[in-house]
Design goal:
The complex is a heterodimer of chains A (308) and B (247). Chain A is mainly alpha-helical and 308 residues long. Chain A contains eleven helices and five strands. Chain A has one domain. A two-stranded antiparallel ribbon of chain A has the order 1-2. In chain A, strands 3-4 form a two-stranded antiparallel sheet. In chain A, strand 3 and strand 4 form a beta hairpin. Chain B has 247 residues and is α+β, with helices and mostly antiparallel strands. Chain B folds into two domains: 206 residues, Immunoglobulin-like (Sandwich); 40 residues. In chain B, 32% of the residues lie in helices and 40% in strands. Chain B contains five helices and twelve strands. Chain B is flat. The N and C termini of chain B lie far apart (55 Å). The chains are: A mainly alpha (308), B alpha+beta (247). At the A-B interface, strand 1, helix 3, helix 9, helix 10 and strand 5 of A face strand 5, strand 6, helix 3, helix 4 and helix 5 of B. Strand 5 of chain A pairs antiparallel with strand 5 of chain B.
């Protein structure tokens, strides 16, 4: 059964979209990731214009992060002060990102930028995950905790920065500029690549800020909720690139898949989960990289000319 | 039932064509193509009658638009868009149907002046951003890409003729058809001349929920549309979280 997407202006098979939403939802629940980094490229693979894929994915990420952040708030695992600073930075980054997205779109380089961005990030993240989990399996212990145990105090240079704020929940007294900068970078990624940015923010919070691990996930979800919502709002107002029908189709089965995935994840061994995720991430990166390198069968393409 | 109606219509046309000795009459089975939520493309039947033998040519033109054709080039190991050409007044949709190959019955100059046939479309005012010799490549690419998208087509023998009086053809509009006012031109050729011509307008527009969503998202309340989408998405996430906590 085909359904016409009003903003993407194309018709897709409704079961394909529902299935995609469910599958990515399941993965995101299973691995505790947003899933945007897989969904956006997949949407582009099935023919959704990149701008609509990115804008819609931002709206869809709101759904999964809201359901996650409420659970963490109940357990008191959110540092609101830190969350607010990260969000403020996120808004700035997302504003810049939406502007940059438009500039690149009219210059004809947006597809390339998105692909290069994904190849870089997925390659690096997938590579690290693969290396870390393989080591973990070999040594029979989770490598991430071993790294995190080094804790704060390693980065002395950041203590010299001005505008110090006390973050009570994180038991930190650091310059607000650092979380602000992290927020800007994440906001940029949300606007340009349609990802939540958790894969970048979580390591940065642990290794750079030295936040206690139990508040990291909740606080990052707090930031992701507001920044993806703000970005979707901006994309909808400035670029008209948020497809509500597509977003709702993706999240209807997606939210159920995420919950089932979260339950399943308890039963599967963490290291093997991470190896599986690393495989998926690297496969997507490889596919995107090949598309960039293999000589295209058609070197011409049509760009919309009704802009400006 | 529809066929019967069409046949009756056509008979009426023959009668009127005879009575007033109009060389050509034609009409569409539908003057409005509605793009609804379930739209996957549609066929509109064009039918008509002539007062004697001749060749029929049907040209369908969509609204014009500016198009940018980009060409990829190699930068180190990566293929990226290198140069581009902007064409103005490009028909978003163009389809020609004829009973025989155009060159068999129509002189080239006439086809060119009437812009009949894909090679005769005047695509105006391209900005000279590449050497003139390469412009032809870009124009060819534009037509090829449009043809791949099923928006351009030149069909020979797509017109069914009956006893040199009645004719009909199915005009195909794919799912990605642009909205706007289309002109369906019907020509009757005799001895290398256009004996008669008729233009029937056709409207393609979005209708129903999909259209309402599109208008909402592109109108003055785009901000509200975004806000509503986020509230819906956030609400769905919150409900799912709340429901599953109890299961």
């Amino acid at each position: 059964m085909q359904i016409y997407l009003p903003i993407a202006e194309m018709s897709v098979n409704i079961f394909l979209v529902l299935g995609l939403g469910g599958a990515i939802g399941l993965l995101s629940g299973l691995f505790g990731v947003g899933g945007g980094f897989l969904m956006t490229p997949l949407l582009i693979f099935i023919g959704v214009p990149p701008a609509v894929a990115v804008g819609t994915q931002a709206a869809q990420t709101v759904a999964s992060s809201v359901s996650g952040v409420t659970a963490h708030m109940r357990r008191g695992n959110v540092d609101f002060m830190m969350g607010a600073v990260l969000t403020a930075g996120g808004f700035v980054g997302s504003g810049i990102g939406v502007w940059l997205f438009n500039v690149l779109k009219y210059a004809g380089h947006i597809d390339l930028t998105i692909s290069l961005g994904y190849v870089t990030f997925l390659g690096v993240v997938g590579g690290f995950m693969m290396a870390e989990s393989l080591l973990g399996v070999l040594r029979r212990r989770p490598a991430a905790l071993a790294l995190a145990a080094r804790g704060p105090g390693r980065h002395m240079w950041m203590h010299g920065l001005p505008f110090k704020i006390r973050f009570k929940r994180s038991k930190l007294y650091v310059s607000a500029l650092l979380p602000l900068a992290i927020g800007v970078l994440v906001g940029l990624l949300v606007a340009m690549m349609g990802v939540g940015g958790g894969f970048l923010m979580v390591p940065a919070m642990i290794y750079l800020l030295g936040m206690p691990t139990q508040v990291v996930i909740g606080t990052s979800l707090f930031q992701i909720t507001f920044v993806t919502a703000g970005t979707a709002l901006l994309q909808a107002t400035v670029n008209q690139s948020v497809d509500a029908v597509l977003a709702l189709l993706l999240l209807v089965i997606g939210v159920i898949g995420a919950q089932i995935g979260a339950r399943l994840s308890v039963k599967v061994k963490g290291e093997y989960l991470r190896i599986m995720l690393a495989f998926i991430v690297l496969a997507v990166a490889l596919r995107l990289a090949l598309d960039l390198v293999i000589p295209p069968s058609e070197i011409f393409s049509l760009g919309s000319g009704d802009a400006q | 039932m529809r066929r019967l109606l069409v046949a009756l219509f056509a008979l009426g046309f023959v009668a009127s064509a005879r009575a007033q000795d109009v060389p050509l009459v034609a009409d569409l089975s539908n003057h409005l193509v509605a793009i609804t939520t379930g739209f996957t493309g549609t066929d509109v039947l064009l039918f008509g009658a002539t007062n004697g033998p001749g060749d029929i040519v049907v040209v369908v033109r969509g609204p014009t638009k500016q198009e940018i054709v980009r060409r990829k080039g190699r930068f180190g190991p990566i293929w990226a868009n290198a140069d581009n050409v902007t064409f103005r007044d490009v028909p978003t949709y163009y389809r020609v149907a004829s009973s025989r190959p155009l060159s068999e019955f129509a002189p080239e100059t006439l086809l060119a002046s009437r812009q009949i046939g894909i090679d005769s479309i005047r695509i105006g005012g391209a900005e000279e951003t590449v050497p003139a010799a390469e412009m032809a490549d870009f124009r060819k690419a534009l037509v090829r890409l449009k043809t791949d998208d099923d928006l351009y087509d030149q069909g020979v023998g797509d017109i069914t003729l009956m006893s040199n009086r009645l004719f009909r053809t199915a005009l195909h509009f794919p799912a990605n058809v642009p909205t706007g006012t289309y002109m369906v031109e019907v020509y009757l050729f005799r001895d290398g001349q256009i004996t008669s011509g008729e233009i029937v307008p056709l409207t393609i527009s979005k209708i129903g929920i999909g259209a309402d969503i599109f208008d909402f998202a592109h109108g003055r309340f785009a901000f509200l549309y975004g806000l509503l989408t986020i509230i819906l998405a956030g609400g769905a996430g919150w409900v799912a979280g709340a429901v599953f906590r109890r299961v």
